[in-house]
């Protein structure tokens, strides 16, 4: 644990065996070194403490309370495939931090809707949209139980079983799915496979409704 001299003295009074060593100044911010910018779909995606390149389209996302910094292969692959789609309305099902939703808005999709079953994810996704000054409608919903809005495109970066169950009830004409290994592929009768992108052993697919 980390503490100051007073805390160390308290620990020594409470426990017989205590060892201590000094830490370098700035240790509390060292975790930030692990969050580096990435590029996907023609966008720069990075944390708020790194200055974005001038003139580039950017997505700034604060890593922390909800999944999705943009760096994970499934997130990058999803954004790359979203960038290939015809622009229209889009639903991000299981939005996490909102990085894919915001990326879609940056890429010209309108309107962009985002849902997640987790209250914290809903709050974080809404904050990510505000930070980036884009219009994303974020709400709480269980993608397997609640009514979902009809949109032109659907994005689902979740695990394979949830993806398949979601596709069975989705109303979009095209879907970008990810969240599973390159050795796995979603199979849903009314959807046909259009293309695939693999990154670091993970996969993302474009599926079209039959």
Short description:
With 210 residues, the chain is an alpha/beta fold. The chain has helices at residues 5-14, 73-82, 99-106, 119-132, 160-169; strands spanning 38-40, 43-46, 58-60, 90-93, 112-116, 136-140, 153-157, 174-181, 191-199, 202-209.
Written account of the structure:
It contains 5 helices and 10 strands; from the N terminus they run H-E-E-E-H-E-H-E-H-E-E-H-E-E-E. Strand 7, helix 5 and strand 8 form a beta-alpha-beta unit. The strands form 2 sheets. It has a 7-stranded mixed sheet with strand order 6-5-4-7-8-10-9, with helices on both faces. The chain has a 3-stranded mixed sheet with strand order 1-2-3. It has one domain: 3-Layer(aba) Sandwich (Rossmann fold). The chain is α/β, with parallel strands linked by helices. The radius of gyration is 20 Å and the shape is globular.
């Amino acid at each position: 644990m980390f503490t100051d001299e007073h805390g160390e003295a308290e620990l020594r009074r409470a426990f017989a065996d205590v060892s201590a060593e000094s830490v370098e100044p700035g240790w509390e911010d060292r975790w930030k070194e692990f969050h580096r910018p990435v590029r996907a779909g023609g966008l720069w995606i990075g944390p708020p403490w790194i200055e974005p390149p001038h003139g580039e389209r950017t997505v700034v996302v604060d890593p922390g309370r909800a999944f999705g910094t943009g760096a994970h292969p499934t997130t990058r692959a999803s954004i790359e495939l979203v960038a290939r789609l015809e622009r229209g309305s889009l639903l991000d099902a299981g939005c996490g931090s909102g990085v894919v939703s915001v990326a879609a808005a940056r890429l010209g999709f309108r309107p962009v809707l985002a849902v997640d079953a987790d209250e914290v994810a809903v709050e974080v996704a809404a904050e990510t949209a505000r930070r980036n000054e884009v219009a994303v409608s974020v709400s709480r919903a269980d993608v397997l139980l609640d009514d979902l809005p009809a949109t032109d495109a659907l994005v689902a970066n979740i695990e394979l079983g949830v993806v398949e169950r979601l596709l069975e009830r989705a109303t979009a004409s095209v879907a970008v799915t990810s969240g599973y290994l390159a050795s796995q592929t979603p199979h849903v009768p009314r959807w046909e496979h259009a293309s695939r992108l693999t990154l670091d052993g993970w996969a993302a697919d474009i599926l079209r409704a039959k």
